[in-house]
Design brief:
By secondary structure, this protein is mainly beta. It is built from two helices and 14 strands, in the order αβββαβββββββββββ. β11 and β12 form a beta hairpin. The radius of gyration is 16 Å and the shape is globular.
């Protein structure tokens, strides 16, 4: 299911918090189609980072092998690192796993990118979904985007996303999903994308 071509998957909506798919009518560049999320309630804050975990799923075989299994490591600002004897500060998502994060504030579509994901250890790609509810529906923002830019002074690399590419004006909840799609066990204890933090670049006011 996760290996479908990008041209196809970009037209779909993740309908539930588990594994059901439902075909949606997402906006296209021409505006000939539209998809509208339910109304979203947004807090007013200058804190742009994820506040709580709304959902979490990793394949059991990956959970058994990985040692970075705490989804709350994805909360707050980026703080991952390497002690020389091991990593810290992120959650590993395994093969196609995900973590759902409540930002409490809303990301809004303005010029440029609106959401930033910090991904650690290597350059694993990330798939980002957005919603106005922790139960979905989840709208695909971008599929398997490489996270390969590193900010000075930050251990994790980042990848940025534009809500406008999904035809969304705003979103409060984000599903960050592994885009590496490498079967477990894979020879490491941090299989899949390793999520350090999620940041709203354009805060709703």
């Amino acid at each position: 299911m996760l290996a479908m071509p990008v041209a196809t998957i970009s037209r779909w909506v993740f309908a539930s918090s588990h594994d059901a798919w439902a075909k949606g009518s997402l906006p296209t560049a021409s505006g000939s189609q539209s998809f509208r999320l339910p109304p979203v309630e947004c807090a007013f804050s200058d804190d742009p980072y994820a506040k709580s975990v709304a959902g979490f799923w990793v394949p059991a075989v990956c959970l058994a092998n990985n040692v970075y299994n705490d989804p709350e490591e994805a909360l707050g600002p980026p703080d991952a690192g390497d002690t020389g004897n091991g990593f810290f500060g992120f959650v590993s998502l395994g093969n196609g796993g995900w973590v759902d994060l409540d930002m409490e504030v809303c990301a809004v579509d303005r010029g440029g990118d609106d959401v930033r994901v910090f991904q650690s250890v290597s350059r694993e790609p990330v798939t980002l979904w957005a919603s106005s509810s922790p139960e979905g529906p989840w709208v695909l923002v971008e599929y398997r985007k490489p996270c390969n830019v590193r900010n000075p002074g930050t251990f994790s690399r980042r990848c940025d996303f534009d809500l406008g590419e999904a035809g969304l004006e705003e979103a409060r909840y984000f599903r960050v999903q592994d885009g590496e799609l490498y079967p477990c066990p894979g020879g490491t204890t941090s299989e899949g994308a390793d999520i350090d933090a999620v940041e709203v670049l354009n805060l709703g006011r």
